[in-house]
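call fold target=Cell division coordinator CpoB
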Amino acid sequence: MIKTLCLSALSAALLVAAPAHSQSRRELAERLDAVEARIAEVETSSMAGDPVAETLLRRLDELDYQMRELTGETERLTFENRQLRSQVEALQAQLDRRGRAPGGYDGMDGGPDAAGAEGVDRGDRGDLDEDAVAWMSEGLDEAGQSGRDIAVVDPDDPYAEARAEATGVLGAPPRRPAGEPSGDARAPAAPDPETLYGGARDKLLEGDFGGAQVDFEQFVNAYPDHARTGEAWYWLGETFFVRSDFTGAADAYIAALRAEPDGEKAPDALVRLAASLNGMGRQADACGTLERFDSQFPDASAASRARASREAVRAGC
């Protein structure tokens, strides 16, 4: 069909372009033969495939395949991002719910084993010492003048020595057993503060509360004057609180308040301290602590005030 149309068009053009009497039958036949030969070449090239066209088609196919791969990768990353966001939101919701459950504080959903804790005593592990009670009732400023360098532990607690070694003396380097070498000969240097703090937070978000506890303890002992030390004490308290170790949690929250009395986490640390006291059965001390919230933190956020109000209701204040 294509050949027929081309021949017809060429014949018409030749007949119009030159007078009929000036062209011989032989010249016309030669021209027609040339056109037929050219058309045959075009048909052969079309059937065999143009190398340039084939190259372009292959390139288009490759680009299409790459686009499909990138689309799949984007969808996978989006799904994983949604999963991570859901896990973080679930952890935050569990942290907010754990104190609202009827009957007190039972830790995270699934119990301590689900949080990575092993061998954690969920019962009352001793009360705070009298210095801590006085500190709560007299306020943060007065507490700083008495017993600032004393770790808050129960002298009758069988785990007091281990807890003191783990949390360290507030404002002082950790104690070292007699005869143990000091400095670099005893242990390798701690990682840089940002790396150590970030790793501890990651473990906390992952539910590895035991690992987060170790890292936060290392941070506060290695960098007692760092800008994040107050926050580190607060998050250390959270690692104890979620496992119902209310005495250890109270120690850490008190240290957070001493490190940064006006810090970002200070209002929440005070509320958590009251929650820890309530979990230990010291409702009166918990209420006394919460009574100081408004005067101690007049500019606290609405969220912190709401948490303080909820804790007051739970404690029966």
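return ok
The longest helix spans residues 51-97. Residues 111-176+190-315 form a domain with the Serine Threonine Protein Phosphatase 5, Tetratricopeptide repeat fold (CATH 1.25.40.10).
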